[in-house]
Design brief:
The chain is of the alpha/beta class. The chain is 42% helix and 13% strand. Strands 1, 2, 3, 4, 5, 6, 7 and 8 form an eight-stranded mixed sheet that branches. Helix 1 (17-30) runs antiparallel to helix 4 and helix 1 (17-30) packs across helix 12.
Length: 316
């Protein structure tokens, strides 16, 4: 029996270019669309945008083209909005919604051909929302939602974008606020516990987690604004590596792979002037990926150690 592939994509703004390059390489190596290789895809923020495109069958190369035009169109500062919101956000969410509606298209989650999970957080009570297709095992409350609304809400990173109103849910922001900046664990819980019995079994699944690049040499905040930016950044990005380890602690029989290349410097979520550099970084990292090994669950430098191996390593 061939393994089912579960793919998770981190948040990270314009740095979504990096996992897109990995998906372009996947399509090149397999000779088919990424959707044909994957059974379940999850995304947060920029990862939600990519996951939506993938679920709709849009080639990764076309999604990269979208990012090259998306950046300058959506990261346009709204000075009046910033003033009247008392500095709550820099960019309007509507241009992102309109662009997604044009390029990805409206459809209910239930109309998608593969399983999808998109994360968001409701502003009124801080409740996390996981937008998925309806099935007989889950609560059947999000499958009729419009894909574009769900993605726009997931991409509304606090202080960057204004919250997005999801009909029937309320104003929502980036699902990465808290622990789902890397939604790989939430995806696995959904797949293994909230789909019909036998749909996904850990021992028969390959879990792939794509990051948007990591820069370890962070600056030391020295004023109120710097500290605010640091806190937002940590809320959105810090849990990323922990989530893949959690997958193996709870679902040790699954084969898990984590791909998250190092960045030469700190590139912001709205770093549209860094698009060319991000493409170069992404392509260099993607060229090192052996997708045949990953899809077959074979040993690979990107494979995450099992939970028992992690315990042994930590206690040496």
């Amino acid at each position: 029996m061939s393994s089912k592939v579960l793919l998770s994509i981190d948040g990270g703004g314009i740095r979504g270019i990096i996992p897109l390059c990995a998906l372009i390489e996947l399509e090149r190596q397999t000779g088919k669309s990424a959707r044909e290789s994957i059974s379940f895809v999850a995304g947060t923020s920029t990862g939600a945008i990519i996951a939506a495109g993938l679920a709709r069958g849009i080639p990764a190369e076309q999604m990269l083209d979208l990012y090259q035009t998306l950046g300058p169109k959506i990261f346009r500062k709204d000075v009046l909005g910033w003033i009247f919101s008392l500095g709550s956000f820099k960019y309007r969410s509507r241009p992102l919604y309109d662009l997604l509606a044009e390029r990805v298209g409206h459809c209910a989650l239930n109309q998608l051909e593969i399983d999808l999970l998109i994360t968001a957080k409701r502003v009124s009570d801080g409740r996390p929302f996981y937008f998925v297709r309806d099935n007989e095992v889950n609560d059947q409350v999000t499958g009729q939602l419009d894909l574009v609304d769900c993605v726009t809400a997931s991409a509304a990173a606090p202080t960057y974008f204004e919250p997005w109103e999801v009909p029937g849910v309320g104003p929502c922001v980036d699902g990465g606020v808290g622990i789902a900046g890397n939604p790989v664990y939430q995806m696995c819980v959904e797949a293994f516990y909230y789909t019909p019995p036998g749909a996904y079994t850990p021992a028969e699944c390959i879990v792939v987690s794509l990051g948007t690049g990591v820069y370890d040499a962070r600056f030391s905040p020295n004023n109120l604004v710097a500290w605010a930016n640091w806190v937002v950044g940590e809320l959105l990005m810090s849990p990323a590596e922990q989530q893949t380890e959690l997958v193996l602690r709870h679902f040790e029989t699954a084969g898990a792979y984590r791909i998250n290349p190092s960045l030469p410097r700190d590139i912001g979520l709205d770093g549209i002037n860094d698009i060319a550099e991000l493409i170069q970084i992404g392509r260099q990292a993607a060229a090192q990926i052996n997708w045949a090994d990953i899809l077959a669950g074979r040993p690979n430098p990107t494979r995450v150690l099992s939970a028992s191996a992690l315990r042994r390593r930590r206690w040496r």
